[in-house]
Design a protein that fits this description.
single chain, alpha/beta, 8 strands, 11% helix, 17% strand, Peptidase_M11, Peptidase M11 gametolysin domain-containing protein
């Protein structure tokens, strides 16, 4: 079970770090401040609970927290495609690599929006043809302002 704690107003942590919540990564416990950016922020609550499942902060342009498309950054929407995959909450429509996507071929895919369900919610590209330079996968997903993603910023819609 996950356990959420809310600090009483008179016991707010005095620290040089500006925190709204903290969590075990991974773990079962998370702590929140009694403020708008703490327990009263669904983005903060979701981020800390997802830390309990082992996710780390969202990055964008080499800046931590700068991904506003997910609660793991500073958004209030559902997890992104790579986060959904890491959590085991969604499966790829296709996994493309040097053996499944040969050179000089093309493929067509009909990718559903991630809010429609967990099956076939992304295309996972594993660029193993890069040899030792292959360190990260690429995920393609369609995000639409609906359901759990209804608060997506327009740039991600």
């Amino acid at each position: 079970p996950q356990i959420l704690y809310v600090f009483p107003d008179h016991q707010i942590i005095r620290t040089s770090c500006r925190i709204s919540g903290i969590a075990e990564t991974p773990g079962t416990q998370s702590w929140y401040l009694p403020q708008d950016t703490g327990i009263f922020s669904k983005g903060t609550v979701m981020q800390e609970m997802l830390h309990n499942f082992g996710l780390y902060h969202g990055w964008r342009n080499k800046e931590e927290y700068a991904d506003f498309s997910t609660a793991m950054g500073r958004g209030t929407s559902c997890p992104s495609a790579p986060e959904l995959w890491r959590l085991g909450w969604a499966t790829p429509l296709a996994q493309l690599n040097s053996s499944t996507f040969p050179v000089a071929t093309y493929m067509n895919f009909t990718l559903p929006a991630t809010y429609l369900g967990p099956t076939g919610a992304m295309i996972k590209i594993q660029p193993d043809w890069l040899d030792t330079k292959y360190t990260k996968n690429l995920y393609l997903a369609l995000r639409v302002k609906a359901a759990g993603d209804r608060e997506l910023l327009e740039e991600f819609n």
